[in-house]
Design goal:
The protein is α/β, with parallel strands linked by helices. The protein is built from 17 helices and nine strands. The protein folds into two domains: 329 residues, Alpha-Beta Barrel (TIM Barrel), CATH 3.20.20.140; 35 residues, no CATH class. The chain is globular and about 60 Å long.
Length: 447
């Protein structure tokens, strides 16, 4: 996602089992994910068309029987930083809790192991990832009747049969491996099954869509990262990366890539979105674009309003940063108050469905899925304000004339097909995780 919850924990020590390298990136803007609930409560509601009750019952039946996979959910950051128990009801505060996951029909949820770009600068990126991985395991172990750890297509299908939610993990931010392929392999051992090559920060081997390009895409080491991910069976995630990085990853990868939470640039010009030429290349690669729900990424009006608001509020924001320098928590609170009085315009659910339509038309029906960005996206469309409202997407797809087979593909089967192909490619190579792994290293970290 573009905006993430501010992390207030101090710099971390080196992880014992992983190779640690110093790493720096340009400073990023203060994150704005904490505006989430305030903005959504402040925005006026949008009137929805009268629901066809017969079609709604058909949608509910289909939704209950389908395998539903979400490519990206940021609740682990909240679980770590706010000591949040995912079994605690949190409607109106967070997007995600176990009861609403069940209500929304979730089968497989990718819990985001999001490592803020500040860790690339301050150190401790690998440890931060480990803390987030541990909190996902802790939840699964605490609530075994609702959650099960999952690392494969077979696990996701088993979770559906057993009436559980498959807890999957994807690292967000390639700097989490601290320039170490050994660390990448250890994260695979711990159950991580995709890695977003960058976040908003350009790292030592890949350019980001939201930072200054330094490498013209992927460096030689970055290409080795992609090859090693293919060998392991870890999906390459191209959300957040620059267009050139995405193109390079598609040149190198022999397995399907995913965009775990991205939308179509033809409908919203945000640089985090994917242009049509790369949508077609992802389709040719066999990959899947999992549509992000964040309104700034799907609604051009919201994106324009967001830019205008930031420009208009810049003097106040700069003053707050100066006044509360060194006190991240208080700064976040004061920013929340400012944004609460300046909400973005609301976005109808139809705009989200438009992105699914567009990607299905450009890339093909087999190459689109769902990547909500719940508890990460700052504002969400009317009709999917939290994870419990996912059946509304199924209803809208049927209302637009999608067949039940195609709806199932969008909800999860497209992702399962791509993941299965990545697993098959990994099985054709050695299954010795480290013994046959690349030992290529960067000569030194960028200063």
């Amino acid at each position: 996602m573009n905006q993430k919850r501010r992390l207030n924990s101090p710099p971390c020590l080196s992880l014992i089992l992983l190779l640690i390298f110093s790493n720096t990136v340009p400073a990023l803007a203060v994150s704005r994910r904490a505006r989430l609930n305030i903005q959504q409560r402040s925005a006026p509601p949008i009137a929805s068309p009268t629901r066809d009750e017969r079609l709604w019952q058909k949608a509910l039946k289909l939704h209950r029987s389908a395998i539903i996979v979400d490519g990206h959910n940021d609740i682990p950051t909240i679980m770590v930083d706010d000591n949040y128990d995912i079994a605690t009801p949190s409607a109106g505060k967070y997007h995600t809790d176990l009861a609403r996951m069940k209500q929304g029909g979730m089968t497989g949820e990718f819990f985001s192991i999001y490592v803020d770009g500040k860790y690339a600068k301050e150190g401790g990126a690998a440890r931060r990832a480990m803390d987030l991985i541990d909190v996902v395991y802790r939840a699964a172990e605490r609530y075994p009747n609702q959650l099960m750890m999952a690392t494969s297509v077979a696990d996701i299908r088993r979770a559906k049969r057993d009436g559980k939610i498959a807890a999957l993990m994807g690292i967000e931010g390639g700097h989490a491996i601290e320039n170490s392929l050994s660390a990448l392999r250890d994260f695979y051992r711990l159950g991580v099954r995709y890695m977003t090559l960058t976040h908003n920060n350009t790292n030592d081997w890949a350019d980001s869509a939201r930072d200054k390009p330094l490498h013209n895409g992927l460096t030689d080491f970055g290409k080795e990262v992609v090859r090693e991910m293919n060998r392991l069976g870890m999906l390459v995630d191209v959300s957040h990366v620059s267009d050139k990085t995405m193109s390079d990853a598609l040149d190198v990868s022999t397995a399907p890539v995913i965009a775990s939470h991205s939308s179509a640039r033809a409908l919203d010009s945000h640089p985090r979105n994917i242009p049509d030429d790369l949508l077609r290349r992802i389709a040719k690669n066999g990959g899947v674009v999992m549509v992000n729900f964040y309104t700034v990424f799907i609604d051009q009006k919201a994106y324009d309003a967001d830019k205008e608001r930031d420009k208009r509020l810049k003097p106040q924001l700069d003053a707050l940063k100066e006044k509360f320098k060194g006190d991240d928590k208080r700064l976040e609170e004061e920013q929340n108050k400012l944004y609460a009085t300046n909400p973005l315009p609301p976005t109808p659910l139809s705009v989200l469905i438009d992105h699914i339509d567009h990607i299905a038309k450009v890339a093909g029906i087999d190459h689109v899925g769902l990547g909500s960005d719940f508890d990460g996206g700052v504002t969400l469309p009317e009709g999917v304000k939290d994870i419990s409202e996912l059946p509304n997407i199924t209803y809208e797809l049927l209302r637009r004339g999608y067949s039940e087979t195609d709806v199932r593909k969008i909800l999860g089967e497209n992702f399962l097909r791509a993941f299965s192909q990545a697993e098959q490619i990994a099985r054709t190579s050695t299954r010795s995780i480290s013994g046959e792994g690349s030992t290529q290293r960067l000569p030194q970290a960028r200063k």
